[in-house]
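Module 6 notes. Inverse folding takes a fixed backbone as the condition and produces residue identities as the prediction. Think of it as a translation problem where the source language is geometry and the target language is the twenty amino acids. Below is one complete input and output pair. Work through it position by position during the lab.
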């Protein structure tokens, strides 16, 4: 018999330094808050993302809703909300669709509002993502890329069990400066 929690069980968690933070999947009603968080992250941390602020700020929030997906599909976005319901951070999990790659999903768009950073929310989002992804039948590994010079973010992923397997030199260029991207892998336990 399968005693695993249902795939939509993303629990409320309350680390000591983060206050009450509720992690749940993003839904259409969150699109405006998601766009605001994303635009702020792209503007304040341009070297961390492949997307750029200038190309994104003019987009309509509704364009992002299709990305939110559904937990059970392996295509989902998780949001971290404070007690007042304000979106503090998010991350996406995008399952590969082709038959030979459906065991794999890409973690994307990890961001925490600058005012809410260093309170454990990023760590909570990664843990919740791994928990939800490990409930998806057939999904056995997560991959991601991270700007190699952002050592604190690399360390965060390493602490969550991701291991680097390669480096793409000069993967993105921001304001004329090239940045390498580290490729990381985390096997899921089902
Ligand atoms: C990366 C990011 C999401 C982390 O979110 P966060 O909520 O601040 O992370 P946490 O508080 O959970 O930190 C977990 C651990 O990561 C490391 N860490 C996170 N931010 C750090 C910082 N600014 N300096 C040093 N270490 C840091 C630490 O090891 C930390 O543990 P500690 O606080 O016990 O030392 C956030 O800094 C962010 O949005 N950055 C800009 C966008 C970005 O880089 N996204 C990642 C794309 S791959």
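Target side of the pair, the amino acids:
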């Amino acid at each position: 018999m399968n005693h695993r929690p249902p795939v939509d069980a993303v629990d409320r968690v309350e680390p000591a330094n983060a206050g009450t933070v509720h992690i749940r999947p993003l839904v259409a009603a969150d699109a405006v808050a998601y766009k605001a968080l994303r635009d702020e992250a792209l503007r304040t941390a341009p070297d961390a993302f492949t997307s750029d602020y200038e190309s994104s700020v003019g987009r309509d929030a509704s364009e992002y809703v299709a990305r939110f997906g559904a937990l059970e599909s392996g295509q989902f976005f998780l949001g971290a909300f404070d007690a007042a319901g304000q979106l503090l951070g998010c991350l996406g999990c995008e399952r590969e669709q082709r038959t030979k790659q459906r065991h794999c999903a890409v973690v994307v768009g990890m961001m925490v509002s600058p005012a809410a950073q260093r309170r454990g929310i990023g760590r909570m989002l990664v843990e919740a993502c791994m928990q939800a992804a490990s409930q998806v039948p057939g999904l056995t590994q997560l991959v991601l890329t991270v700007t190699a010079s952002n050592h604190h973010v690399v360390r965060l992923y390493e602490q969550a069990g991701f291991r680097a397997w390669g480096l793409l030199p000069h993967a993105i260029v921001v304001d004329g400066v090239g940045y390498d991207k580290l490729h990381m892998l985390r096997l899921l336990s089902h």
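Reference fact for the lab report: Confidence is low (pLDDT under 50) at residues 1-9.
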